[in-house]
Amino acid sequence: MANIPAESIKRIVNKEFGLHITDDAARALAKMLEGRAKRISRFAVLNSRRRKGDKITKEDIQEYVLKAGLDDT
After folding, report:
1. Cβ atoms of residues 61 and 44 within 8 Å
2. Residue 45 and residue 14: Cα distance in Å, rounded?
3. pTM of the full predicted structure?
């Protein structure tokens, strides 16, 4: 089960798109987002270690976005 609350997903979808999402769909989306967050976190940790940092910075996250060719919005 995802650590991201399904209720949070429901609020985001409703606020952004004016639609309701089923419990199952919200849980599935939360699980996918958590998986993506783990991959980004893993990358950011390695990036921080490469630059000999002791904290993950916003730049470490942005580097993932740049390398993956993702939209950061």
Report:
1. yes
2. 33
3. 0.77
